[in-house]
Design goal:
It is a single chain. It is built from 15 helices and 17 strands. By secondary structure, the chain is of the alpha/beta class. It has two domains: about 140 residues, NAD(P)-binding Rossmann-like Domain (Rossmann fold), CATH 3.40.50.720; about 300 residues, Dihydrodipicolinate Reductase, domain 2 (2-Layer Sandwich), CATH 3.30.360. It has a nine-stranded mixed sheet with strand order 16-15-14-13-7-12-11-8-17, sandwiched between helices. It is globular, with a radius of gyration of 24 Å.
Length: about 500
């Protein structure tokens, strides 16, 4: 296969340019996210020589840290979680660029400023700073305010930059998101705020735009005239994994639907952007969110399904029910499964239902977008199976790839037809493991490319849509108990009924 690198759409969403010298400041370097994702991502970027020649990594937290223990912990995390086993030589190169600066006490951020100035002198990083908030959300606003008070939000006189990366969740509803965004934008300009959703860093998610807008055969069919419905599934086989206290507050709707699932929907439903400019792409995503049809309160139970997993068996192992998990209330009404029918009210998608579902303790981990094409207007071959043919499925994870299912004649004298598939798989086609999402997103933040990050209005439009669901469900969840589904199954019977009312079924994954 020949890849045309002269075409920026085929070569990738980012037009290549050299990274400027930079210091990456990670708040929460001792935490799980930094050790499982961020430091391994930095190692792999260093391995591929994608980081600038002059760069440094500064970890910070409120307490004192033993330097030797921290470095050993980061190396152990990289050994365990990096997609490449770190070599001693390359790790030592990265380790030399690592340092730590505590921010406790009234002089904490002033000390950080002095530490960064010293790094600029010794490493030649030119005053460029990328601040990464790998902390609990409750710390976002205090950290950002402290950065502003210390003057660390202001670019230097030599044209240097100061950027801020914020992990999800950005708020827990529209009001809290607006308050946090106001704090962020009171200290950093919007163009310098990078709200991260790691799904957007996945190669397969990036490929959605290339697939749609780089191939003339599919885009003309991508509308209500040819597509019967769309299914988007984010399935996890794991439970809450020790995050019961967090999940009790969030639920699957806030944890998965508001961000990952709606972002996938935007990429599928958006109009072609005028260019590959970050704001051109994000403008079209916002239009999708604005076109989402509101659900009247008296129809909320017809359009949505919520449930909790009960004890069952996943991957051959017995697992407890949700209300038996640590830090979960035995009377919990927090949903671990959510399914819904949504509509995008515009000319392209008028009348096409989007069926969305997300759940924990389902049979396997899989994220997929499937477009079911409309049936032929007059069926000449009566022995086909209408519900299985003409489906385009885009597998985001795992086994990344694209499958097109259509009907074909079975060899022989009788006119029998059967669905067959054409498949593309990343692993077999390109022969290499795609980079981790955090590698791409970290590099883009260093480069100043915000295409794969979420703009303020995207966050707030998505929360406005999710908030109306919660109003429909009621402040207390609207029910005394949620339906249950056995762990290791594909959710409650009510989820099947949601599609059955429209004479449709969920795809078997």
């Amino acid at each position: 296969m020949t890849i045309d690198t002269a075409n920026p759409l085929r070569a990738g969403l980012r037009q290549e340019r050299a990274a400027e010298p930079c210091t990456v400041v990670i708040f929460g370097l001792t935490g799980d996210l930094a050790q499982r994702k961020l430091v391994p991502a930095l190692y792999n970027l260093h391995h591929d020589r994608l980081l600038p020649g002059a760069f440094a990594v500064v970890g910070t937290a409120r307490g004192e840290v033993d330097d030797a223990e921290l470095r050993a912990s980061l190396r152990a995390g990289a050994d365990k979680h990096s997609r490449r086993s770190p070599s001693d030589e390359l790790w030592q190169e990265l380790d030399r660029r690592l340092s730590y600066c505590g921010t406790a006490g009234p002089d904490g951020y002033a000390a950080l400023a002095r530490h960064l100035d010293k790094i600029d002198e010794t490493e030649g990083t030119g005053g460029n700073r990328l601040f990464y908030l790998a902390t609990p959300p409750s710390a976002f606003a205090p950290i950002v305010k402290s950065l502003g008070e210390a003057g660390l939000n202001r670019p230097g006189k030599n044209g240097s930059f100061a950027r801020l990366v914020v992990e999800k969740p950005v708020g827990i509803d529209l009001e809290s998101a607006q308050k946090l965004n106001s704090v962020l934008n009171s200290v950093f300009e919007e163009k310098d705020v990078y709200r991260i959703d790691h799904y957007l860093g996945k190669e397969t998610v990036q490929n959605l735009l290339v697939f749609r807008f780089g191939n003339a055969i599919f885009e003309p069919l991508w509308n209500q005239k040819y597509i019967d419905h769309v299914q988007i599934t984010v399935s996890e086989s794991i439970g809450v994994e020790g995050r019961g206290a967090y999940f009790e507050h969030a639920g699957i709707t806030r944890d998965i639907v508001q961000n990952h699932l709606l972002q996938l929907m935007c990429l599928i439903a958006m109009e072609p952007p005028a260019s590959l400019d970050a704001d051109a792409i994000r403008d079209e995503k916002v239009k999708v969110l604005q076109a989402l049809r509101g659900i009247p309160i008296d129809r909320i139970d017809e359009e949505t399904v919520r449930a909790q997993y009960a004890a069952g068996v996943v991957n051959g192992k017995p697992v407890p029910g949700y209300r038996e998990e640590e830090s979960v209330s035995p009377e919990s009404r927090t949903e671990t499964y959510m399914a819904m029918r949504a509509y995008v009210d515009n000319w392209r998608w008028a009348g096409v239902p989007f069926y969305l579902r997300a759940g924990k303790r389902l049979p396997k981990r899989v994220t997929e977008v499937a477009l079911q094409f409309s049936a032929v207007p007059h069926r000449l071959f009566g022995h086909g199976t209408r519900g299985l043919a003409n489906t385009l499925a885009l597998r985001i994870q795992p086994d990344e790839g694209i499958t097109l299912k259509f009907e074909s004649k079975v060899p022989g004298p009788n006119p029998r037809i059967r669905p067959v598939t054409m498949e593309f798989r990343y692993g077999t086609s390109f022969g290499e493991q795609p980079p981790e999402a955090y590698e791409r997103l970290l590099l883009d933040a260093v480069l100043g490319d915000s295409t794969l990050f979420i703009r303020r209005d995207e966050v707030e439009e998505s929360w406005a849509y999710i908030d109306q669901l919660y109003r429909g469900w009621g402040q207390d969840g609207g029910v005394t108990a949620l339906p249950e589904y056995t762990a290791g199954t594909w959710g409650p019977a009510e989820g099947e009924v949601l599609l059955a009312r429209d004479s449709r079924i969920w795809r078997r994954l």
